[in-house]
Design a protein that fits this description.
- The chain is α+β, with helices and mostly antiparallel strands.
- The chain has one domain: Roll (SH3 type barrels), CATH 2.30.30.430.
- Helices cover 26% and strands 28% of the residues.
- The chain is built from 2 helices and 5 strands, in the order E-E-E-E-E-H-H.
- A 5-stranded antiparallel β-sheet has the order 4-3-2-1-5.
- The mean pLDDT is 93.
């Protein structure tokens, strides 16, 4: 690991296909895991089946939510990196991550992108009631 991680440190973590910033609240070196308390969203998770990315012909096209504010999750230490910038406010960062993902999907004319945009529209109704 490049940076030595410590409890209380601000870090980024990749969980499934999303990227988050948060506080490292525990380290289990024996299992190679850190516990991240989510404070912001840097990249919204991709929609659909993780095992068949970019496909719509799957048994279940998953609607994938971002981790919630203050949600705690185990992340492999190899997927955690020190974060030295100002931590963004959760809701603003979620909106920005969704905006960036939607722009990218609108450039893609595939069936997967269309279905992903539909899933994101549904998620936005849930996120921003």
């Amino acid at each position: 690991m490049q940076d030595e991680l410590s409890i209380g440190q601000k870090v980024t973590g990749i969980y499934k296909t999303g990227k988050y910033v948060g506080e490292l609240i525990d380290i289990n070196a024996n299992k190679g895991l850190g516990v991240l308390k989510v404070l912001g969203v840097l990249k919204h998770p991709l929609q659909g089946d993780l095992h068949h990315p970019n496909h719509t012909d799957v048994p279940l096209f998953h609607e994938r939510k971002a981790l919630s504010k203050f949600e705690k999750t185990n992340i492999p230490l190899s997927h955690l990196k020190a974060f030295h910038e100002e931590v963004p406010e959760y809701e603003k960062s979620l909106k920005q991550a969704l905006k960036e993902q939607k722009l990218s999907l609108k450039e893609d004319e595939s069936a997967w992108a269309t279905k992903s945009l539909e899933a994101i529209a549904s998620l936005e109704k849930d996120y921003f009631k």
